[in-house]
Amino acid sequence: MSERYLVTGGSGSVGSALVRYLLDRENTVCSYDHDEDGLFEQQQSIEISKRSNLKSFIGDVRDYDRLEQAINGVDYVYHCAALKHVKLSEYNPFEALKTNVDGTNNVVNSSIKNNVKKVVLTSSDKAVNPSSTMGATKLLAERIITSGNNITGKRKTRFCSVRFGNVWNTAGSVGKIFKRQCLNKQDITLTSPNMTRFFVTMRNAIELCEYAMKNMQGGEIFISNMGKLNIKDLAEQFLLYFNSNSNLKLIGTYPGEKLYEELYTEQEAFRTGIIDSFYIVLPENDFFLDTISYWKGKKDFIKVDESKSLRSDNNGDKINPIDLIKNI
Fold first, then answer.
1. What distance in Å separates the CA atoms of residue 116 and residue 157, rounded to the nearest whole number?
2. Residue 17 and residue 8: Cα distance in Å, rounded?
3. Which member of 126, 138, 228, 232 is catalytic?
4. Residue 33 lies inside a defined structural domain of this protein
5. In terms of residue numbers, what domain contains 271?
6. Among 67, 113, 121, 282, which is most exposed with the fewest C-beta within 10 angstroms?
7. Residues 6+ positions from 23 with CB-CB distance below 8 Å
8. CA angle 126, 105, 101 (to 5 degrees)
9. Measuring CA to CA, how many Å separate 262 from each of 80, 203, 272?
10. Does residue 320 lie within any of the structural domains?
């Protein structure tokens, strides 16, 4: 049976991939975005036979009334709309606040009012011990999503979050920047030789979203078991792969930028387990006893090492950079 989904940020990198994924499964999909050109291009890229199931809504998550119009009659919501660039958010912190925090609060309230069944927020590893405006707003967005489960009253709406690392080959991602610099015979700009990051493919990002939507009980944070890379190693492999004579150019870190990322904190490790190749951070509030009991009752829910966080600079599986570069 066809379901009706709303995807905020529907013409963005992750949002558009979710829209196509859901349309391929014969669902009705409302793609909600303030980017008119992005929505138009999305319409043109969808097979004609599926376009009748795509409903394109021009709107901003900051605009509660417009969001409520789009969400009316929707069964499930993927909330992908966000300001995601660290440097731009540092320069425009209040704009990041209005989109990432106020916008998420609007999604929560309109979803409850319209009896949406489930809502998944797409968050970031930058929400873990944040050092940037973007990370701080994403942490607040996660907390707002979790607390949404507390204010549903008699309604059945449930909320959870997913955390991504760097989604490979998306707009503004490091792989696209390095490729462009190689092809244009420019120096590859490197902020620090010690910088490490977690990476996830778009396919794995969609699998994480789907798993969270299907299995959430309310209040969890779902995380892919992502691999890590040193960015200097990645840059050097780009030079070799594209047979470039360019050099590496150190430019220094941006304001708010960290040398490493974490998938969960040391505090969260005490309530984190891994199942089906996904990490699940359980909520800590007593209100979520049903959620906690559900996951801890599963025989294949394995607790993680409680003595440390999962960081890109000291643990986790390494990725072969060539495997990523071949898919850009």
1. 6
2. 12
3. 126
4. yes
5. 4-167+201-226+265-306
6. 113
7. 29, 46, 50, 53, 54
8. 35
9. 20, 21, 13
10. no
| C-alpha closest to that of 291 among 235, 233, 218 | 218
Q: Give strand ranges (E) for 165-220.
A: 166-167, 188-190, 196-200
Q: What is the pLDDT of residues 267-280, one digit of tens each?
A: 999 999 999 999 99
Pair of tokens at residue 126: 């930058």
pLDDT at 142: 98
Is position 84 within any domain?
Answer: yes
Is there a contact between 6 and 32 (Cβ–Cβ < 8 Å)? yes
Structure tokens at 313: 């600079």
Asked about 126 being catalytic, the answer comes back as: yes
Does residue 74 fall inside a structural domain? yes
Q: Diameter of the chain by CA atoms?
A: 64
Please provide residue 144's backbone torsions phi and psi, each rounded to the nearest 5 degrees.
-65, -40
* Full strand arrangement of the beta sheet holding 166-167: 166-167, 196-200, 227-230
Q: What is the pLDDT of residues 106-120, one digit of tens each?
A: 999 999 999 999 999
Q: Tell me what percent of the residues of the chain surpass a pLDDT of 90.
A: 90
For residue 248, give the nearest of 178, 312, 302 by alpha carbon.
Answer: 178
> According to the model, what pLDDT value does residue 1 have?
61
